[in-house]
Amino acid sequence: MTTPSVLVCLAPGTEEMEAVxxxxxxxxxxxxxxxxxxxxxxxxxxxxxxxxxxxxxxxxVKVADEEFDCIVLPGGVEGxxxxxESALVVEMIRQQQxxxxxxxxxxxxxxxxxEKNGLYPExxxxxxxxxxxxxxxDKKNTRRVFTEHDHKLITSxxxxxxxxxxxxxxxxxxxxxxxxxxxxxxxxxxxxHYDKKFA
Length: 199
Hints:
Elements: E1 5-10, H1 16-28, E2 32-37, E3 45-47, E4 53-55, E5 58-59, E6 70-73, H2 77-84, H3 87-98, E7 102-106, H4 109-115, E8 145-148, E9 153-156, H5 162-174, H6 176-183, H7 194-197
Parallel strand pairs: 1-2, 1-6, 2-5, 6-7, 7-9
Antiparallel strand pairs: 3-4, 8-9
Helix pairs in contact: 1-5, 2-4, 5-6
């Protein structure tokens, strides 16, 4: 099996816990991870929602034509707003959808990126409780992490669900054994239900 490739989109105001948790778990899984700045001027050093600075690998435009098994959209109101207003981000998500590859969005991103741009209108989604009303009534889901297999879309609620969200990405891209291999040494809390999913 080829090594899965994951793109994590970053922007000023990105929720750092969500971004770093996903990046860390992808690395632990042995995936090829690229972090890309959606800042229009190509700035790689970005100040996140709580003031933590993250450095992206590349400007997003440099990897716009590359193929990724999953594109991840972290939240943070400012960060998700920025991603949702980026024509390049939106075009890459549309292409990902067209290619039937995975997209994963957490916190405010399902509302401020996907819903705002009419992406995945038929898919059920969860998001941060403060933004759940952005999602159509008949498409809302309130689970901590929700996977739409038919649409290859994973959505999640916020910083506190970031670990589950990241492990779900591993599970979808590389299967149960790989996810279990990542989770076991981390001493994840049993209430996260990994023990049931990977038993």
